[in-house]
Amino acid sequence: MQTPSSARPILGPGFEIRHYCGLFGIAGHPKAADLTHLGLYAQQHRGQEAAGICTADGGRILRQAGLGLVTDAIPEGSLDGMQDPLAVGHVRYSTTGGGSPTNIQPLLVQAAYGQRALCHNGNLVNASSLRSAYERRGHIFNSTSDSEVILHMLADERYRREADPLAAVLRDLRGSYCLLLMQPDRIEAVRDPSGNRPLCLGRVDGAWVVASETCALDMVEAEYVRDVAPGEIVTLTEEGLGSRRFVDEAACRRAHCIFELIYFSDPSSRVFEESVHLARKAMGAALAREDGVAADLVIPVPNCARCAAIGYHEQSGIPLGRGFTTNHYVGRSFIQPTQAIRDLTVRLKLNPIRDAVAGKRLIVVEDSVVRGTTTRAKMQSLRRAGATEIHLRVASPPIRYPCHYGIDFPQRSELIANQRSVDEIRDYLGIDSLVYLSHEQMLNSVQNANADYCTACFSGAYPMPIDENFRKDLFEASKQVSR
Ligand code: SF4
């Protein structure tokens, strides 16, 4: 069983990038709450700020949620009174709306038409304008999350008069969203028309399961059936599964987030009908294919680059080894927004194994470089441990543009590749050579290439309209101003 300590580190090599939110839902199972708990554990790498579960018995919805890891937010025994046949759950990293308790999902509301619970993975680029319109009409928002506006829209008479109010609401949303919307007798699972984030369906003991990643299906021993299609609403009830579309298939322009394959998803998962492990291995092999540098050892920067390092090793024939130990026990209290603390965190999280790297010419494989500051700290630590040459190979292209679809990259000005050439980055990192995976090699490493993938953080070609003024703390800021 995968536990938080063996999942993606809370801090560590990738802590510059926050990705957010994992979803899990199940209908028609006597252990729905417990399986949802497990499904969230399996997806802890998708969010560590908060977690929550709602269950339903056909008549009412109950909720258990809190800040922190799944173990803290949903402690043992807290689900004892929630053994209902329907459950949805959410793990959160906040990109929009901060980490306050009011933003923990599932959001649960008591509306005139009944209870509704909502889980969201993604980012609504038009949340600001939608919310402003409701605030002008006197609506009170309880959270600073972009997701809450969906609940206000669902309560809006304008949409409720439609034959399919949910479909009408979804057609007015812009951006990236996978949703689980719970009513007392059903779960509706939604994927936006671009299919930007993954969402899959499985079956266990005759019950239907929905999850962000297939590793959650594996955790509850569910069999993968298919992905929820872009533009589709799937209804899960105790009786079975229903499906309808809110956007015609022909009108759906797919833009799967390629960063799910590079970094976010668990290597044991298949996302976008693609093996994460094999895609990463292919990216590492592509890096090695045209690389003539002589070296003694290939080492991954743990943990995300392990699969790419295997690919590099297999392609190049250079021995694969371990260059770092990883400390899984560094707590969240160490997250601080200063460079000094970030450097300290890198040292706490990753310690070079002196006897493995001293006197060696190293190929160091990294999944991505964002600000460059933590990468530099890692390279310096290898140098101090006695590495004679350091050749950094990055299994993705330079990140030059921010993500507007839910990934918390720093501002454009903080992205090192936006500010410096590859040679300048090499000098800044203090290494002997630096090679990034090309855009073409990246797409060649996945099966559903070209138009199926969003690559905007590398190319600047945003597949969906963006709000240039968007900031992750937008609603936090507006709340502060109004106080
Ligand atoms: S911009 Fe990058 S991180 Fe954001 S959705 Fe596109 S590929 Fe993913």
What do these coordinates show?
The protein starts with about 20 loop residues before the first strand and ends with a helix. It is globular. It has about 475 residues and is of the alpha+beta class. The strands form six sheets. The chain has a seven-stranded antiparallel sheet. The protein has two domains: about 250 residues, 4-Layer Sandwich (Glutamine Phosphoribosylpyrophosphate, subunit 1, domain 1); about 170 residues, Rossmann fold (3-Layer(aba) Sandwich), CATH 3.40.50. α11 crosses α13. The protein is about 30% helix and about 25% strand. The chain binds iron/sulfur cluster. The site of iron/sulfur cluster (SF4) has 11 residues, from α17. Iron/sulfur cluster binds next to α17.
